[in-house]
């Protein structure tokens, strides 16, 4: 789909009719010259229909519009198709938020966690009314702090209650978020957290409405948004969780919060350097057919979430026949040409 041209045609041979347009334009030019020559040769005829000789614009514009309308109608005969972004069928978004101690860092003012919570609330407010939103808190362990709901006030309240804790188990957070997106898929979360596979016995994922298992990102009804600084230090590997999500066709959009150079964080008498680790976040997004975003300040983070909201609302690229559009454009240009001719000359040129 990504390699398809922006515009294609079902009947491309009809476009050969466009070669008739230049001869028609030439014929009109010759006819116009003959008409003006006759007017100069027989001045008495020039008073018929108009009291003054028409300007160049008035002579040229109506036939130009008519020729453009004819071109549009010929293109319509070739049945054009455009590659367009269509509204998604998204039903559930799970917001997985990193609540580890490193989110206390102040390289994003006033702190990473404050900026993340503020941007997340704006993101939730921007979701369509028919989309359910869930929140998963990710720290040393991960848990669903708000099950999927369309009540925005409940989701925002859950985000406001989040507090930084020790540890970062990104893999745990992602597998719990995946089980939240696909509650009927039989994902064995406990087995995955114990080091096993989260996949149940092989099933026909496409028949079950869970997307094509061979195509990451093919599941249209749900998505995961992970906000983190990327530093995973406990629990299962985040990339293994991404493999499971990819097998189910569920996209994991990742948002990196922080700066690559990081800052020194002092807490409980300990000092450590906390940096944004983009490598894992980029790999998770790539593996699941999604996209990675980076935010190095609070304003940038809000822009990321607005961009992500738009991406989730219109995330399907498909080929749509636009014959009617070109037909309407051709007819409009032809009618406009006729109206201008009647207005300026009292007849259709």
UniProtKB/TrEMBL annotation:
PROSITE patterns: VWFA (PS50234). It comes from the Bacteria. This is Ca-activated chloride channel family protein. The chain crosses the membrane at residues 14-31, 60-78, 324-345. Keywords: Cell membrane, Membrane, Transmembrane, Transmembrane helix. Residues 92-308 form the VWFA domain. It holds the Pfam family VWA. Gene3D superfamilies: von Willebrand factor, type A domain. It comes from Pigmentiphaga kullae. InterPro entries: Aerotolerance_reg_N, UPF0353/GerABKA_families, VWF_A, vWFA_dom_sf.
């Amino acid at each position: 789909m990504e390699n398809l041209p922006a515009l294609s045609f079902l009947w491309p041979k009809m476009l050969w009719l466009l070669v008739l347009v230049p001869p028609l334009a030439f014929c009109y030019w010759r006819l116009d010259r003959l008409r003006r020559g006759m007017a100069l040769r027989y001045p008495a005829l020039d008073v018929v229909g108009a009291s003054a000789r028409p300007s160049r614009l008035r002579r040229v514009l109506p036939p130009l519009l008519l020729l453009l309308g004819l071109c549009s109608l010929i293109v319509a005969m070739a049945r054009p198709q455009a590659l367009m972004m269509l509204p998604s069928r998204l039903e559930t978004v799970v917001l997985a938020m990193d609540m580890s101690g490193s989110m206390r860092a102040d390289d994003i003012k006033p702190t990473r966690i404050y900026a993340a919570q503020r941007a997340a609330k704006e993101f939730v407010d921007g979701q369509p009314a028919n989309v359910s939103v869930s929140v998963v808190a990710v720290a040393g362990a991960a848990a669903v702090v708000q099950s999927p709901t369309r009540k925005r006030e409940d989701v925002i309240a859950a985000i406001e209650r989040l507090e930084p804790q020790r540890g970062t188990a990104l893999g745990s957070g992602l597998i719990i978020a995946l089980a939240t997106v696909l509650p009927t898929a039989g994902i064995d979360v406990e087995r995955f957290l114990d080091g096993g596979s989260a996949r149940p016995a092989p099933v026909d994922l496409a028949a079950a409405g869970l997307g094509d298992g061979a195509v990451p990102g093919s599941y249209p009804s749900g998505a995961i948004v992970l906000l983190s600084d990327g530093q995973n230090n406990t629990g299962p590997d985040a990339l293994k969780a991404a493999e499971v999500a990819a097998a189910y066709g569920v996209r994991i959009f990742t948002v990196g919060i922080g700066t690559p150079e990081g800052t020194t964080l002092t807490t409980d008498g300990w000092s450590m350097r906390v940096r944004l680790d983009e490598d894992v976040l980029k790999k998770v997004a790539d593996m699941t057919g999604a996209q990675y975003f980076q935010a190095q300040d609070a304003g940038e983070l809000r822009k990321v979430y607005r961009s992500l909201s738009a991406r989730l609302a219109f995330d399907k690229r498909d080929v749509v026949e636009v014959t009617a559009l070109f037909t309407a454009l051709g007819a409009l240009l032809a009618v406009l040409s006729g109206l201008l001719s009647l207005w300026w000359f009292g007849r259709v040129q």
